[in-house]
Amino acid sequence: MPPPPAAVPAAPLTVAAVQAEPVPGDLAANALAAARLVRRAADRGARVTVLPELFLPAYHPPTLAADPAGTDVAADHDGRVDDPRLAPLCAAARDGSTAVVVGAAVRHPDSRRTISSLLVDPTGAVRVAYDKQQLWGGERELFHPGDRGATLLVGDWRLGLGICYDGCFPEHGRAAADDGAHGYLCPSGYLAGSEHRRDLYYAARALDNTMYVVFANAVGGTDPWRFNGGAAVYDPEGRPLARAADDGEDVLVVALDPASLAATRAAHAMLLDRLADQGLTRSALAI
Hints:
Blueprint: E1 13-20, H1 27-43, E2 48-50, H2 61-66, H3 68-71, E3 72-74, H4 87-96, E4 99-107, E5 113-120, E6 126-131, E7 151-154, E8 157-161, H5 170-178, E9 183-188, H6 195-209, E10 212-222, E11 225-228, E12 232-234, E13 240-243, E14 250-256, H7 258-267, H8 270-273
Helix pairs in contact: 1-4, 5-6
């Protein structure tokens, strides 16, 4: 039997999805930009702010390949990150009493390099929160995949973590839901031309699992690394509560409502009703 969904949180949680354009290879400048965006979100009450995939070094594979020392942050054996270039971002999180999920390239003590989400907590401390499990295309030439999922706990809210291509796999979102997730945070970097898939995947993950989805995306850049924006926050039926345009910077701030979560899960009980064996034993019919 599938595990029962976690109890619905007692109070709303205000979150922010950021859409912005980082500078390839300039981690210090991107940390300053992230700090500015986090302050915007915190000023509007966000307790959790999500920035795009690889925002700190920018998602630009030629630069990531040419300058790993300049584009990576180093993690210790406990996943902690102490990098002076992140000081403005740490200060913004501390001043705003907000948590930040931001994309980075991480070098681990065993020399593995991962596409990761860093968590900057409200004290300004930084640690690796999650390493991307599903690598896409040429990412496999530069990075190692993560080997486990992760859930961020904010009070009684449980928020599963994914990064971009992870969200294209229903199993990834379902694993978060099986761990009790009420929401799914997805820093991403969708390229121009993928708008249909971008808008479909995350709405589907929300409805599949009757959970909120917070989708942050990069924007701008130049071909072939031009990104298409469309950041959004989806409700547990997959409806966009807020959506950014396909270009331009934006900070979407939304309160996740536990009453809406409870009502959706009462009306659509897929998490409870699904079978332990979804047709693994099959018959074949010839005509």
